[in-house]
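Quick start: read one record
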Amino acid sequence: MTRYEENFKQMIVELNQTGRSVRGLAKEYGLAEATIYKWKNLYLPDPSTGLTGKEAADLRKENARLKEELEILKKAAAIFSRKT
């Protein structure tokens, strides 16, 4: 699997947004069309939320981390409240 730099992915999406076709970009840069569509989903905002796919994924990850921290704090509070 080839890893591409974030700025390269964003450049491809921007080129597509300026009117270049996905098929043409895929051919020119040796990418799969599906890859470009995936990058578009990642970097272009969703009209219903205004968030990019990357922002939504980052928020889900942060939310999971915060929920985990909250559970730890609840358990700690229960332990400390029993000792007094």
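Helices lie at 6-17, 22-29, 33-43, 53-83.
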